UniProtKB/TrEMBL annotation:
Keywords: Endoplasmic reticulum, Heme, Iron, Membrane, Metal-binding, Microsome, Monooxygenase, Oxidoreductase. Its cofactor is heme. The lineage of its organism: Eukaryota, Metazoa, Ecdysozoa, Arthropoda, Hexapoda. It is found in: Endoplasmic reticulum membrane; Microsome membrane. PANTHER family: CYTOCHROME P450 (PTHR24292), CYTOCHROME P450 6G1-RELATED (PTHR24292:SF45). Belongs to the cytochrome P450 family. GO terms for molecular function: heme binding; iron ion binding; monooxygenase activity; oxidoreductase activity, acting on paired donors, with incorporation or reduction of molecular oxygen. This is Cytochrome P450 6g1. The keyword Ion transport does not apply. The gene is Cyp6g1_12. One of its GO terms (biological process) is insecticide catabolic process. It comes from the Eukaryota. It comes from Bactrocera latifrons. One of its GO terms (cellular component) is endoplasmic reticulum membrane.
Amino acid sequence: MLTAGTVGLLAAFLALVYVWCRYTYDYWKRNKIPYMTPLPLIGNMEVLFKRTNSFFLYLSDVYKDAKMSNAAAVGIYVLNKPALVLREPELIKSVLIKEFPKFANRSGGSDPHNDPLGSNNLFFIRNPQWK
């Protein structure tokens, strides 16, 4: 049987998880960026957990989403981390060319031993190797 103390601790833990989720998943809202509505704990990665789509096909769907057609960038959540999908060509050019040193260490990538071509891709290469 559960005691009152155990129930209280469980309720407090669930309340903390709820508050943490609300704060974490309000990042794009607080920064006034259009975003895809996330699910608690998994963000926008439902397609990966259900194995209905790959991550890159999901990003393509976000890019083509009719509700976001006027947005220069769209916010998503990779589990609990905010990520930005750029849609406007000038913004993409700015990130990949003009401001490249500031954005050089992107998340993602691949294992250099199993995928040397993918790991040396300019989108995923890390400092100082990209220089």
